[in-house]
Amino acid sequence: MTLNWKIGGLLLGLVFFAAVLLVKPIGVSTQFVILDGIVADAVMPDLVTKTDEGYTSTNAYLAKSGGKYAKSVANPLNYSFVFVLAMMLGGFLSVMARGGLDRAERAIPALWRANFGDSAVKRYAVAFMGGFIVLYGARLAGGCTSGHMMSGMMQTALSGYIFAAGAFAAAIPVSILMFRKEV
Amino acid sequence: MTSIILAIVIGAAFGAVLDRVGAANPNVINRMLNLTDLRLAKAILLAIGTGSALMFGGQMLGLVDVGHMSVKTAYVGVFLGGLMLGAGWAAAGYCPGTGVVAAASGRKDAWFFIAGGLLGAAAYMVTYPAWKASGLLDKIAGGAVTLGTVPGSKYEGMTALPGDILGLVLGLGFVALAFALPDRLMGAGVPRTAPAE
């Protein structure tokens, strides 16, 4: 039950506009760092510390830009982190409202199954490694598909165009090589 | 508190729309990336165009606060990171936002994607000083710049062109591109009629 692209694209555009009208442009990948920070700070309480001016961290990445990531780690109930949790809620409700996904699709996506078979271990291993390089790359780039590509290009940011060029330069050949069989 | 309510409302709407356009479905993502079904690309182009035209149009009418813009810095690592993200996006079928929506929708592989993502983000946190020292994070072409100069914006323009008018024109260009793009560029050439799921 995928929406017609004209309606879907319009709705998606309205959400991006609402975000920048009311708060700020949408971004997601930073919150993987914040969750890592929250977990690490729970194990090693000295990781994030309060200073006179705000927050800092023994980790150089969390401490950068005046400790803005350290501040979010110390205060998880902030706009951007709650935003990602709400995305999960919205996605869940949307899927349930259209009857949920069938069992086979929940286990392994159909296109993957057609090209690589029924091994769940293989699929989960690739999903895990894919996740690793996606988030490593997103943090190196300073944003992901939502922050750089959608929000960035919408604002005519040079960085958004550079990111999109890199992302598609890799994604298209990898996808063509991996997924030859159509379903 | 207001900001938390906005986070819940806009975040939930974003998650729901990502699901409905098929962006959280790895089958739809790879049919776009292997160029056999471009309808999601058309939706994304239309979304960027719509958002851009509304934002810059609203700025010109004084209805949208220019201060809400948040422009990221350009540096060589943006391209390198984009390449990495692109490769993983194709292999897994998920990017960070769509991965979390897919996990919430019951896709088991998406939870593995998130676990790998948390480890990847942690690996970047640890290796960040080396990237910083390499110079690949140093700004290029002015850093956090927009293509034109947006009136009242704290970000500089790459060119002296009026950034709001340019944004509006580019926005309309993205919309036109969405309509001009064919439904597929590769594959059997059979028009798809059935929903892609």
UniProtKB/TrEMBL annotation, chain A:
This is YeeE/YedE family protein. The keyword Transmembrane helix applies. InterPro entries: Sulf_transp_TsuA/YedE. PANTHER family: INNER MEMBRANE PROTEIN YEDE (PTHR30574), SULPHUR TRANSPORT DOMAIN-CONTAINING PROTEIN (PTHR30574:SF1). GO terms for cellular component: plasma membrane. It is found in: Cell inner membrane. It is a multi-pass membrane protein. Keywords: Cell inner membrane, Cell membrane, Membrane, Transmembrane, Transmembrane helix, Transport. Coiled coil: none annotated. Belongs to the TsuA/YedE (TC 9.B.102) family. It holds the Pfam family Sulf_transp. The chain crosses the membrane at residues 79-101, 121-138, 158-179. The keyword Ligase does not apply. Signal peptide: none annotated. It comes from Ruegeria pomeroyi.
